[in-house]
């Protein structure tokens, strides 16, 4: 596989992956007041080390959990605000990628054979099933409302830092966050398309984009540590479905994983290096 790889495309793909990671770090620092208090060097070190923590938890949870824990400990202002901010950023990216994927699946004829049986099954769904589903949805809404009435005020008290972050979210800052989030999605797609070119795979740009989005969504599923096997299975399965041979499809999936592992290796070395109190100090304490 390495002998067949075009190293130029491979290195450019890694540069695109690094640019995506840098945007991810800058976006969190801009969105979270607590994260903005951490010195840049300590924040960058925390960001790269979080990749090494990914195998500890399923999906992307290990990365986010380490970032939240480090910010909360370094600032001494708790973990709720950075956790909610980071969760909101992930939800926005998730919904955006889901919308793009849904649009491509509807617009590209190659995917219609995939979801056509599902559409036929939904159309033939019995009436009593629709009634039961509607009743279950209404009961879920009522249960959620009762739980909110019981625990809502206490939750609001714990989310005081979130209100502070919301107050700091001006329209210019919100527009910058939206632009950065969309740029990250575009860079993820660009990285995947470069890995296809690295192994000489000629695929329609829109088809490659849809596969890249499905791979990114698969990484967020909490099914295996760091999404290992899940993301690769989605990439290989979809590429083979589209007529790509198994070996180059597997090579593309592994190259995408190698990019992440390189960052995880750098983060692991950083994590093993000694840390001082000054390294984790906030800008206010440092001054």
From TrEMBL:
TM spans, by residue?
A: 6-26, 83-106, 118-148, 177-199, 205-221, 233-252, 258-274
* GO CC terms: plasma membrane
From what superkingdom does this record's organism come? Bacteria
UniProt key word Cell division: no
Q: How does it sit in the membrane?
A: Multi-pass membrane protein
Q: Where in the cell is it found?
A: Cell membrane
Pfam families attached to this UniProt entry:
LPG_synthase_TM
Is Protein transport among the key words of this record? no
Q: Which UniProt keywords apply?
A: Cell membrane, Membrane, Transmembrane, Transmembrane helix
Q: Which NCBIfam families match?
A: flippase-like domain
Q: What is this protein called?
A: Uncharacterized protein
